[in-house]
Automatic annotation (TrEMBL), chains A, B:
Domain Glycosyl hydrolase 94 catalytic: start-end pairs: 317-744
Residue ranges of domain Glycosyl hydrolase 94 supersandwich in the record: 17-277
Pfam families hit by this protein: GH94_b-supersand (PF06165), Glyco_hydro_94 (PF17167)
GO biological process: carbohydrate metabolic process
Protein name: Cellobiose phosphorylase
Native source organism of the sequence: Actinoplanes teichomyceticus
UniProt keyword annotations, A-Z: Glycosyltransferase, Transferase
SMART domains linked: CBM_X
Entry superkingdom: Bacteria
GO molecular function: carbohydrate binding; glycosyltransferase activity
InterPro entries referenced in this protein's UniProt entry, alphabetically: 6-hairpin_glycosidase_sf, 6hp_glycosidase-like_sf, Gal_mutarotase_sf_dom, GH65_N, GH94_catalytic, GH94_Enzymes, Glyco_hydrolase_94_b-supersand
Length: 825, 825
């Protein structure tokens, strides 16, 4: 299939909550995620990807080769062979890339189907992870659409990873000698290192009687062959190979004789299991894997009715998750992102943090302290109980100084010493995360939960005390201008003002900081104002009025400091460097204006009263906004600046060096709503909305259903090209921007506010929102062309002044009407 | 080309010192090494492999994908295209795998040629790294053997690695945005991160005018294509792509119009260069790579005459290196290994240690303290000056306790904290390495060289003091039986008697050791006896007779301890475990006998007087010897034993768990010569001699010209299959076993000994040996069928009693005749 660019490579099927990919050769692999609890998988539109249990590095089930050529190799590959002619192909197109007469991939919510046909043989495969299980199901339906009988072979294949993905890819002098499998009753068990310290194994089973199997990759493929032409498939017979070392894999060979019009369903199950240590072997004393515990699970999931029920349950699960918040606006792109894809992406960030995507190899990063607090604002309304648990996990990695590990390990929940501490914005994010949780749930009991410092037993204090220390951490670390010290970095991990690295490859975030100077962050200052006000509100909830007043005073004071030292004349400065020189100022030759402080200062309320906010936002519009989104700073740094760090290590227009770092864009959208500019807010929203950008898929290249971390900025030759899709704080913040600030359905500590700031052209919208147990059916009316705000609500027909909904009893269904009034546009 | 096993896949061309591979689809990639100073490359028989500058992890020039399918992808690929028909192929077979009418790869000493023909077009490529340069040359000769003119395109290709091979393979969220190149005057410059902290870059140049070029991999290949069918080659025209991010690569497109019979030579040069920091850019202040310094080098090496001279110089270099020691024996396999391949492999271990091979991914390991000392005994006679430097580097990583880092970093020469210390055999290897150096060179000045501890300036003491501390390190660390404590491990890194690891994936060598017990090593005891005697000899050289006597007494005492507590009745025990239980004893259910102490104790002289040595060696023959070599222990451990560690983590028959760990086999060969059993010594020698095993290449699978680390033992289903070729101490020790002990040409502190212990069937041999500046032309005569020893020598016709040659003046050429006398077999 020769590559020709076209505008779209698929379309949205909103009714089924699916993105439908019409051709396999998308500009980049367009992926989806399977699993939502402990067993996870990535799957691309051509069946590429891999699976893991909990930890993408340490419990990798299947092998994937990042950055290979062809891209996206390693996956869940099925081969169909016409045994009469020897013709064979992969219904997922990859890896054989044989022409398909039809092809359709549907990425849904935690499942993917790939359907295709060649020569009158149709194959449709559904991939999903059943709830409550640590396995994935491949349900394959093969249909003979010919008018003659067909003798077919179906081969499955996965290549096993030897568990630790990092070691697996580097330690060959050991790993080529350790691989072990068992094949029993048609089930392939991958048990490398099970003989020694592992008590876990993988299994790969098939619902049909086997004509054969393979477990040694290079036997199945044949010497010097790739996945595009396995020898077993080519000859039409498995080798029944048993792997001893080298590369264990799993392949079943099933023969299918299909009458014209006949469909056969074959189920494959790939799973992960653990045995109790004392029961690893059966019989005891042998080296034979104990299969007693896992066999019933395998047998159950090979049954078509179990699969059908499991898939239905998954659908019901997502209906429950998403049904609590649905909107109907004049804008289709808004609706499908809010109702389906943006919420879905938020849930994926909950599951994955930044660990495993097409750009995150799954071996490098733990859970980010800052990342997870931000992700939380996107999923707290969907899974409040798990958000609660996540908050307590995060807070337990905080130090008694209020400082925090920048990352923690998902398996141990311990702080990660490799990356360390000293990212001085981190503690404040905990306040913002907890505030979001409280606003959504009203569950103030979390504030009294005993939470240790650095996970040290006995050090527990109430969570509320953690929040106090978070705020104090900043207050105790102010620089010469009274602005917060930046430490290793603030939100922008790549603005490293104390690092001064001149050694190639040295990590900017962990290299020992220089001493003697004191770099300060205006961003953290803005964030502090916001966090102090949030904590004041929380203190009020606890009846701590004096403390609340103190926090508000601190916020006020910092607001003054920002106004005095953080304002550059037309926008907020970014920082002061190690030597006290401004960063993000007209005084600079490059990097004169940064997006982050314009957003965060306004979010904190700085400049709302005195016009600075409007001026800053106008500067953003003038200097940073592009048709593809708002770039991080301008002008881009054309050379490396040792006093700024990693930001200037990127070529201009990429990543932090004046790329469109999408995470920051919703801050500006929110700020625009705060100054009442709904048109500009919504315009920005649409510039990076992936559904909108679907129309330029040949430019955007990444998936049109989820946000990327970055779109190349105007200084890049590839301006408009997205990278690093899926795992980004962009998801959470855009969800907040569109739902809470543009649509204006905003949880607050005391209830749900309805305060939309809409584009003039809109004529209102409707929404259903579950909130603290009640369901609100919301209608916002607005004459098209009018800009303005809601001044009062009708709640079940009763007028309520202002925009704050009274909290309804759990189980109630409340009809809310709001009218936007204001001047015509 | 369908794979059919055959016995051989090539043949030796001893006259040219080449191994000639006759078909591309060898059982595994059969590789060679380019470079011998700072710039290195691996190259397989199908042009797979990669290049690096000094450090295979941190300065990786080109990208290679280990354990890919097909195996061995990433390399120095040329494509020839017949522009009249569009037919294209790779003369190296990979990656297109198009059928070739002829194919021949010749691996020579630091160079490789791959020649092939298809459709009347012949292409022969020579790859080598010129002496004194940090670049590699590809000299391509394309010949039109048709009787009509041919219009051809030639495309080159390399894929650049973004320098740090580990980061390159994992950190995609950054690395997909950093790639940068320049193309100027037909030269492709890879300069990723040069804009920031790097002052080095790669270049790829071509001697011919270009029809086009490519630098972006996925443009050159086309979307979803691999190296087997690049879009640029398929269409016959490069895209002139300039990489911005993603995957920078280099490809030149050259058009060749060849008359019938015409040959054209095209030279490609791939190199590494650094610029002074102050002169990185040209013009200064720009971001344009300064090419002034490198351009003359590029121009020079694109000239055919430079290439011819450089290749001739490389040949002369190897003639110098190898010419100093050549033998002519009745056994061709012995001759070619001693004269060519074993010596060559020793030189490769000098260059690579254990860093980069087809099994060592180049990112995991530094220079081993123990490894390097052992490698040294294989190359000290070839490059004594560099051996001297290596010794001083190693010794400088020793601690003042006498202990040593187990590894040190090749770039910094600092001890590696990741792997740490506590391998209690390490210090003794320093004595053995220095002894080997002194025996070869007589250069006692090295003993007075000031050498620091742990590289701390000011801590220098004479090297001799390091040796004292090495010996004392053992003496001060004895266990309850008076045997040396084993620490983390002794020579066998996988016998971890203090580790007790039950956590999956936990490294056995770095996990904190248990305390309270005291595991002891019989192996170190034997090694101590050997080292103490060697140090005594060195002390004598320094006139320290008392000290020498003390060391000999210590050796004697330890010999008694071994005899008392290390003897199991029929063989030497291996160790005592943490709880004081014997390991490698008839008392054990498995692991009853280990090879290592049988070799090392006898090497130390233990058991030579009282018959224990003979009994131990008979036990080896009876219990451990297989037709494929001698296994490490028997019976193999069938299950994991937490008290033994990694050794039992391998499936039976692999690696340390009863694999044929080839490194240990020459110890037994030497021991057999020490008890006068030349037949058995030589029999063992031939069992693992790769040249002998060439005849069973379909079983052995690894290269037939170099030793592997391991051959699967009798407990493995793949018994006889080799793994981990090239980088192994096997090379050095086998060279010592055959040359010093079987052929008996053995350097000693006081001169060269001629004391062969030959197989009965031999009728003598001849040798040329350079030694301390003189050249000895040695003839050993022996009636076939006789076993016995040399009793006296004829030196230039003069009788010398005994077997020690008087040291001749430098420059002298000495004729030596020796006669073996003894009983008929």
């Amino acid at each position: 299939m020769m590559r020709r660019y076209q505008v779209r490579f698929g379309h949205f099927d909103d009714a089924r909550r699916e993105y439908v990919i019409d051709r396999p050769d998308t500009p980049l692999p367009w992926i989806n995620y399977l699993g939502s609890e402990a067993y996870f998988g990535l799957v691309s539109n051509t069946a590429g990807g891999y699976s893991f249990y909990r930890d993408a590095r340490l419990r990798r089930l299947t092998r994937y080769r990042y950055n290979n050529a062809p891209f996206d190799l390693g996956g869940r590959y099925l081969y169909v062979r016409d045994d009469a002619t020897g013709d064979y192909w992969t219904p997922s197109w990859q890896p054989t890339q044989r022409d398909l007469d039809e092809y359709e991939c549907r990425h849904g919510l935690s499942y993917t189907t790939i359907a295709s046909a060649r020569g009158g043989i149709r194959a449709e495969t559904l991939f999903f992870v059943p709830l409550g299980e640590t396995l994935e199901v491949w349900r394959v339906r093969v249909t003979n659409e010919r008018d003659t009988a067909a003798d077919l072979s179906l081969f499955s294949s996965v290549e096993f990873c030897l568990w630790d993905a990092q070691d697996d890819a580097t330690n060959f002098q050991r790993n080529f000698s350790t691989g072990q499998v068992e094949v029993a009753d048609g089930v392939i068990y991958h048990k490398t290192e099970y003989r020694e310290r592992r008590d876990h194994f993988a299994y790969f089973a098939c619902s049909e009687p086997l004509a054969g199997f393979d477990t040694q990759r290079d036997t199945f493929l044949g010497a010097y062959r790739g996945w595009d032409r396995p020898a077993a498939v080519e000859r039409g017979a498995a080798f029944d190979s048993v792997a001893h070392g080298w590369a264990p894999m799993g392949s079943h060979h099933v023969k299918l004789a299909l009458e014209p019009g006949e469909t056969r369903e074959v189920v494959f199950v790939l799973g992960y299991a653990e045995n109790p240590r004392a029961e690893k072997f059966d019989p005891p004393g042998s080296q034979t894997l104990n299969k007693r515990h896992v066999r019933p699970t395998i047998e159950r999931w090979l049954r078509p009715e179990t699969v059908a029920e499991g898939f239905a349950a998954l659908g019901a699960h997502w209906e429950r998750l998403l049904g609590g918040f649905q909107v109907a606006t004049p804008d289709t792109d808004t609706d499908r992102m809010v109702n389906i894809w943006n919420a879905y992406q938020c849930m994926v960030t909950f599951n994955m943090s930044r660990s495993a995507s097409f750009y995150e190899s799954g071996i490098g990063r733990g859970m980010g302290f800052r990342d997870s607090n931000q992700d939380l604002v996107g999923f707290v309304h969907i899974i409040p109980e798990r958000a609660r648990e996540r908050i307590l996990d995060i807070a337990a990695t905080q130090m008694d100084t209020g400082g925090a590990y920048h990352q923690y390990q998902p398996l141990t929940k311990r702080g990660n010493n490799d990356i360390g501490q000293g990212f001085n914005d981190d503690p404040l994010w905990l306040i913002l995360g907890v505030a979001a949780y409280l606003k959504e749930t009203g569950d103030t009991s979390i504030l009294d939960e005993p939470v240790p410092f650095d996970n040290v037993p006995g050090s527990e204090v109430p969570l509320y005390e953690h929040l106090r220390r978070s705020l104090n951490y900043t207050r105790e670390r102010l620089g010469p201008h009274g602005l917060p010290l930046i430490g290793r970095a603030d939100w922008n991990d790549c603005l490293n003002l104390n690092c001064f690295s001149d050694t190639p490859g040295e990590p900017f975030q962990t290299t020992e900081n220089a001493t003697g100077g004191s770099a300060e962050s205006v961003f953290i200052a803005g964030q502090f104002v916001l966090a102090a006000k949030e904590l004041a509100g929380i203190a009020d909830l606890r009846g701590l009025g004096d403390e609340a007043a103190e926090y508000r005073a601190a916020a006020e004071k910092m607001t003054g400091t920002v106004t005095e030292h953080g304002w550059d004349g037309g926008w907020f400065r970014r920082a002061y460097d190690f030597h006290g020189r401004p960063v993000g100022s007209g005084e600079n030759d490059e990097g004169q204006i940064f997006i982050e402080p314009q957003g965060m200062c306004v979010l904190g309320g700085v400049g709302l009263d005195d016009g600075l906010a409007v001026r800053a936002l106008d500067s953003v519009a003038e200097r940073l906004a592009t048709p593809h989104g708002i770039v991080l700073q301008q002008p881009a740094y054309s050379d490396y600046r040792i006093e700024l760090g990693e930001i200037s290590s990127y070529p201009p227009g990429y990543k932090e060096n004046a790329g469109i770092f999408c995470h920051t864009n919703p801050w500006i959208m929110i700020a625009e709503t705060m100054v009442g500019n709904g048109d500009r807010a919504f315009d920005y929203y649409r510039r990076i909305n992936p559904s909108v950008r679907e129309a330029i898929s040949e430019v955007h290249r990444c998936e049109p259903y989820v946000y990327p971390q970055m779109i190349a900025g105007r200084d890049a030759p590839t301006h408009g090209e997205a990278k690093n899709s899926w795992l980004t704080g962009t998801a959470a913040w855009n969800f907040v921007a569109i739902t809470q600030w543009i649509l204006g359905i905003r949880p607050e500590l005391t209830g749900l506010r309805i305060d939309p700031v809409l584009p003039a052209a809109w004529s209102g919208f409707r929404a259903t929102r579950a909130y603290r147990g009640a369901t609100y059916e919301i209608t916002v009316q607005k004459p098209a062309g009018v800009t303005g705000r809601v001044t009062h609500l009708l709640v079940d027909g009763e007028r309520v002044d202002g925009t704050l909904l009274p909290v309804a009893p759990a189980g109630a269904v409340v009809r809310v009407e709001a009218v936007v009034t204001g001047p015509a546009d």
